[in-house]
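G., the chain you wanted modeled:
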Amino acid sequence: MSVPGPAPPPGGVLAGPPSGPGPGAPPRGLSDTSPDEGLIEDLTVEDKAVEQLAEGLLSHYLPDLQRSKQALQELTTLERKKKEVLGSRSVRVATEVQLQNQVVLLDTLEQEISKFKECHSMLDINALFTEAKHYHAKLVNIRKEMLMLHEKTSKLKKRALKLQQKRQKEELEREQQREKEFEREKQLTAKPAKRT
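Predicted structure as tokens:
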């Protein structure tokens, strides 16, 4: 269906939409088809006009679009840098958290080691006390033995002294006996008579 409209102005550019329906066309209502339907078929547009319109449209919007493109590229670059920084920060934060956890773990481990050493030293102290008791008992026994030996040696010295005194007394008595016997023998031996 072809609806004849007004002729395009010179240069091929329309100034506005065609005015109303043509003669003999049914009136358009709300349920009818779109008002733009068939408009493309009705227009005869020149290629030169299309080029000029395209160039005008491009020259009008292209600088804004290029600025928008550049701004988007800058935003994208900034977003990437932000993600890299945040990623490195998150890595740094995660590393710091890990280091803090390791420090806490090392502190806990040192505390456990010190507790273990205390327990071990307590066992060593208990062993030392047991050993000290054992050696104390040995020392007490040695002291008793030394006292007994001292008493025995004292008794032996007294006995030896008594024996020595007895022997000396016996020897003295023997010597005295010998002397008496010698005197008696002397007296018993014949004496030549004295000449008078």
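Helices lie at 39-42, 47-188.

Shout if anything looks off.
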